Amino acid sequence: MTVDDVLREFKGKIRGSISASVDVTDVEFEGALLVIYTKTPDRFAKSKDLVKNLAKTLQKRIVVRPDPSVLTDVDLAEKKIRTIIPKDAEIVDIYFQPDLGEVTIEALRPGAAIGKEGVLLNEVRKRINWTPKIIRAPPIQSKTVKEIRGYLRTMSDERKVILQKMGRKLHRGVSDGEKFVRVIALGGFRQVGRSCSLLHTQDSKVMIDCGVDVSSDKNSSPYIHLPEVLPFETIDAVVITHAHLDHSGLVPLLYKYGYEGPVYCTPPTRDMMTLLQMDYLKVAAADAKKVPYSSENIRSVITHCIPMGYGDTTDITPDIRLTFHNAGHILGSSICHFHVGEGLYNIAFTGDIKYERTWLFNPAVNHFPRVEAVVVESTYGGREDYQPSRREATERLKDIIRTSMKKKGKVLVPVFAVGRSQEVMIVLENLVRNKDVSEVPVYLDGMIWEATAIHTAYPEYLNNKLRSQIFQKGDNPLLSDMFKRVDSMEMREKIIGDKGSCVVLATSGMMNGGPVMEYLKSWAGDSKNTIVFVGYQAEGTTGRKIQRGSKEIPLNVGGKVVNLEMNMNVETCDGFSGHSDRRQLTGFINNMSPRPERVIFGHGEESKCLDLSSAIHKRFNINTAAPMNLEAIRFV
Q1: 340-356 confidence digits (pLDDT tens)
Q2: Buried b or exposed e, range 499-527, using 16+ CB within 10 angstroms
Q3: What is the C-alpha to C-alpha distance for residues 192 and 577, in angstroms, rounded to an integer?
Q4: N or C: which end of the chain has fewer CB within 10 A?
Q5: Which domains does the chain show, CATH number per domain?
């Protein structure tokens, strides 16, 4: 039976289940959804159980959308919305998604916009036929979020065609041949960087992550040129665990060379990876390095992206269903759970995880309905890798800052824009608030401000305590007046030349370029100053060389290599990492429900992957492996 045959059958069943007064204009697959278009959306809304019963009958997720012909013109619709919703709701922005027939209304007071028992929302729906969604307006407007939403609005027609193509490919049916499930290690195994895996069944090919190793000039890309992977048109879906470049940096390259399928990730991951990919191009161009793709390819990723929240489940191929769960690593980071076949096999890819409540996030989820195998990171999986608690890390940072202030020195903290920056900001705000350190200017340089703005756009992804503090007390530590954005070269030069003490958080986190290098060049020679490492420093990076105690650091200045003399105090403040240490990784597997039959280790230096694999096997009697890149493991 072809897809068209299936659709014809569904259309007949739908028309046979509804009254003649409900005008259905079209029924189409859009991604995993069966979408019913109607000129009378209000009549569908009145029949509360109609959609539920249809979904049960057809065994499909159903969405009812207004036919485009009945949608009120955007400009007129916005005027009507503003007359219906009272001014005290404080509307900040209104944006339309024609491909979904939805209008999102950002308001500072969402409750006032919704109205008692949703009366205002219902009135909006009735007057303009668009489906309204109310969200809380973020306190800092993110340029990235705004631009992505604006771009998607202009691409609504193209996106609808893309979703319909996805839907037809997704519903092509499964074959009758031999069933198998295998994973091919394409990158990031027995190493940190260029994470990439291929989940392969008899009917599907799904790529999990497609990262770049920014610390390597020669082997920075995963092995995506393998015959199992090529041509890219044969890949059904790409799933991204989180936004860091070692997991998402080369996704646009797939579109450059022919991939036209979907990218599944959480909404904040979509926005964060766009920010980081654009910066990656900018840094590569500034360093006169080969740029692997263009901004147009990044826009293709956005157009083909299907955002999913935690706990959402969707079919991504004819025989694979995907669910995202919180990974606790950075904003929107996910453990990807794949249900293969009708109960054939279940496998989870953790991406990077933090199995501990942090200042920003709840701990990684490790309870699933079913799981036979799990692919786990091993960044800090070595036998000596035990990190201090968050409380101990706070005390350590407090002591470092106090000591530096006494010497009237400056503190430079190289940070990743996403995750570590915001954790350090929360700790610094807390230390100043409790008067544990004297008030000192804290400057944010690089992408930190924009990444923080994206955090404020998605408060539902933060931990319970922080959400409560933001929503119930109206107190967001990320918005403290003590943080000052460095928004110009002139301001940076002024901070560098200022004689007073200060703390500077600057990117990049591993010191592979970025504004952090400007501060380093000026402050490295003075022993009163301190550099503090709060995140992982990969082998080969400038950060790793400094951390190891090198007294001369080779730097490229104006095309010439010069040796920078290092006299500044070098400190490492462990405990801020978004990765689990050896104890947490062991606890994650020990407390998994159900206990997996197989555990595969990657995303760690070779010795750490092998040692953790051996230790878990001996302790829990679980079948473990630490494959090399290019190896394939068959599960079924």
Answers
A1: 999 999 999 999 999 99
A2: eebbbbbbbbbbbbbbbbbbbbebbbeee
A3: 15
A4: N
A5: 3-69 (3.30.300.230), 72-137 (3.30.300.20), 157-164+178-384+579-631 (3.60.15.10), 392-572 (3.40.50.10890)
Distance CA 209, CA 204 (A): 16
| Max avg pLDDT among 275-289, 396-410, 558-572 | 396-410
Indicate the residue type of 509: G
Instruction: Give the C-alpha separation, 569 to 409, whole Å.
Output: 10
What is the C-alpha separation between 316 and 18, in angstroms, rounded?
A: 29
The pair of three-digit structure tokens given for residue 577, joined into one six-digit string: 């990492």
Q: Give residues with Cβ within 8 angstroms of 61, minimum separation 6.
A: 32, 33, 34, 55, 314
> 489-497 vs 516-523: helix axis angle to the nearest 10?
30
Helix (H, G, I), strand (E, B) or coil at 435: coil
pTM greater than the 0.90 cutoff: yes
How large is the average pLDDT for residues 279-305?
91
Which of these, 546, 542, 509, 531, lies nearest to 400 by C-alpha position?
A: 531
Nearest to 422 by CA among 451, 396, 443: 451
Mean pLDDT calculated for residue range 75-90: 95
pLDDT tens per residue across span 25-39? 999 999 999 999 999
